[in-house]
Amino acid sequence: MAEELTVTHRNKRLGNGFTKIPHVVILGAGASKAAFPNGTPGGLNFPLMEDLVEVVGLAELLESSGTNYQGENFEVVFSRVAGDPQKVRLKRKLEEQIFEYFSRMQLPPELTIYDKLILSLRDKDVIATFNWDPLLLYAYRRCGNYFQSKHFGISMPQILFLHGNVALGVCVDDSTLGPMDSTCSKCQRRFKRVPLLYPILKKDYILDPVIKEQWDRLRYHMANAYFATIFGYGAPVADIEAVRLMKEVWDRNPRRELAEIEIIDIASHDTLKTRWERFIVREHYRTCVSIERSYSFQHPRRSVESFFDCFLQNSPWPENPMPDCRSFEEMANWLAPLLVEENRCLAASS
């Protein structure tokens, strides 16, 4: 009987009026660090700005140029280098070494937090990342390839790269984006590298057309979202422009008075509330230290619908947590009832 109840819940019909309202997830460096706590295959670790020089191995470059970096956040160091016309060559070398480091990262064969995050959302939802590493894009690609190989339709969230990405390519002529190792669907030419937005204290998010377009899309979805999750992003003082761009459209969101802010971080509850209070309305927020306790992992592919029913209809859904599995086959079998219902609703509406 218990199993019957679980299956019934997992097939809960998508029909409460919030089926197309987006859930926006914003990822910072802490997200990749949490997703891969032991680093990547090959022994590459995920740096934060505080330890980027040591992790990426930039100390020799900086020391040979007489650039002080001890005890300073890399964003401060790089800003100083970028603003010095005598250090153009050093700036270029730092950029290339950072790009090369992140480009060597690979996914492990088993399911990761990033795979599960992607599979927990649908095509109306958005994951926007500040991270340069390619692992979210690699996870997105292999999730799509797996379900396509099984001839089972699955909608997946949109992925946005707010600071560029080492695995992302662009065809400027046709204004298309895709993985660096693929080709433009329109002209069939190989994609060119997307410039990374390197860490300077005052970033210009409209200077590069690719990054501007990514921000335009994030701002559109934040202006319409009902649920926003912030995972491992600390809204650093140096990112004041990024926070301003998000806050500006969040304030215009017609659902803001009812919308939920979810913050996933190892910092204390009080610290997180203070850090994000400008986005929070009354007590419409929650914090957790692990993404496994996040709303999309407890109500996968139904986060907005279940939240709406719980808090606006006083009809909470039982939790339906994603299983702790490591294989795509096991995850696909578990997701099947949800996907069947989604495809049935899609067919009925077409």
Provide structural commentary.
Helix 8 (135-149) links the parallel strand 2 and strand 3. This protein has a 6-stranded parallel beta sheet with strand order 3-2-1-7-8-9, sandwiched between helices. 41% of the residues lie in helices and 11% in strands. It folds into 3 domains: 2-41 and 109-161 and 206-349, Rossmann fold, CATH 3.40.50; 52-103, no CATH class; 163-196, no CATH class. Residues 1-11 have low confidence and may be disordered. It has helices at residues 2-10, 29-35, 52-56, 59-64, 74-82, 88-103, 113-119, 135-149, 209-222, 240-250, 269-275, 295-298, 303-312, 328-349; strands at 23-27, 126-129, 158-161, 168-171, 176-179, 192-193, 227-231, 260-264, 285-288. The chain is of the alpha/beta class and 350 residues long. The longest helix has 22 residues, at 328-349. The two termini are 35 Å apart. Helix 7 (113-119) crosses helix 8 (135-149) and helix 9 (209-222) packs parallel to helix 10.
Offer a few descriptive terms.
350 residues; alpha/beta; Rossmann fold; 3 domains; 41% helix; globular
